[in-house]
């Protein structure tokens, strides 16, 4: 990855009309309905943006959408990249660097995750307060990382405290039950064994998924304030574990998403 590549991606998007977005949004698996809220949308498919990776997962559509949400300009990633698709950490986080250079000042991230905390149920939304990186690497571990920001990035508070407090207040006002917890990020794509779920619980994870952490690390390097939520799509009880079907995960994500959209839209309105 070079600065020239990022410049070329940004130049292409600027020419398409992606002008000074204030907010960047990353939509997780099964969470695409937010795009219906974008006014005057402009689309750029990943395969047309210079140096952009391509989305390979069948239910990730693979485009950047620019437009207005609640009066604020935003750029939305519909379809993200994962280690389990064969991408590396630089591919996965490249769009965050591009959105940052486009001008975003805040980053909103969503994902679908499994509930490790047995007090949480499928269909719940969890505000991510902290994370555990179990993906076996870092998006900052490359030779010329110093050209893009600090190499040794502080992660004592990776998720913005102010935005977390605001989203909690919004959830109370909107009568949306909002859990809070720690997100563990694994490689996937296989789901976890009973023993792995027990291990994750001992480690202090409340939810587990296969994304988000690389993007959050890079956003912290770029000093971008982040708010992130998990839509909990299955319950990971090792003593009563049932086989999980991907279609069921997508169904729960789709049913829960309107609540997540309300939280995001109200937060955008207040920023």
Automatic annotation (TrEMBL):
It holds the Pfam family PNP_UDP_1. Gene3D superfamilies: Nucleoside phosphorylase domain. It is an enzyme of class 2 (transferase). Keywords: Glycosyltransferase, Transferase. GO terms for biological process: nucleoside metabolic process. Its EC number is 2.4.2.1. Residues 23-269 form the Nucleoside phosphorylase domain. It comes from the Bacteria. Pathway: Purine metabolism; purine nucleoside salvage. GO terms for cellular component: cytoplasm. One of its GO terms (molecular function) is purine-nucleoside phosphorylase activity. The keyword Mitochondrion does not apply. CDD domains: PNP-EcPNPII_like. The keyword Ion transport does not apply. Belongs to the PNP/MTAP phosphorylase family. The purine nucleoside phosphorylases catalyze the phosphorolytic breakdown of the N-glycosidic bond in the beta-(deoxy)ribonucleoside molecules, with the formation of the corresponding free purine bases and pentose-1-phosphate. NCBIfam families: PNPH, PNPH-PUNA-XAPA, PRK08202.1. This is Purine nucleoside phosphorylase. It comes from Flagellimonas marinaquae.
């Amino acid at each position: 990855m070079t600065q020239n590549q990022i410049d070329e991606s940004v130049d292409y998007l600027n020419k398409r009309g992606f002008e000074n977005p204030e907010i960047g949004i990353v939509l997780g698996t099964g969470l695409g309905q937010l795009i219906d809220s974008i006014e005057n949308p402009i689309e750029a498919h990943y395969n047309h943006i210079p140096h952009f990776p391509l989305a390979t997962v069948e239910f990730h559509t693979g485009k950047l959408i620019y437009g207005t949400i609640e009066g604020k300009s935003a750029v939305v990633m519909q379809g993200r990249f994962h280690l389990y698709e064969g991408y590396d950490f630089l591919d996965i986080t490249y769009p965050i660097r591009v959105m940052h250079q486009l001008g975003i000042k805040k980053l909103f991230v969503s994902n679908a995750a499994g509930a490790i905390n047995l007090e949480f149920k499928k269909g719940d939304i969890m505000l991510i307060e902290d994370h555990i990186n179990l993906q076996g690497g870092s998006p900052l571990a490359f030779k010329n990382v110093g050209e893009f920001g600090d190499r040794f990035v502080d992660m004592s508070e990776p998720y913005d405290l102010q935005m977390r407090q605001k989203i909690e207040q919004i959830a109370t006002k909107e009568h949306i039950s909002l859990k809070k917890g720690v997100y563990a990020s694994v490689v996937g794509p296989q789901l976890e064994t009973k023993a792995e779920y027990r291990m994750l619980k001992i480690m202090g994870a409340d939810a587990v998924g296969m994304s988000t952490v690389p993007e959050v690390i890079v956003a912290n390097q770029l000093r971008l304030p982040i708010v992130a939520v998990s839509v909990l799509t299955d319950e990971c009880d090792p003593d009563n574990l049932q086989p999980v079907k991907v279609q069921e995960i997508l169904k729960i994500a789709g049913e829960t998403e309107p609540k997540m959209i309300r939280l995001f839209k109200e937060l955008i309105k207040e920023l």
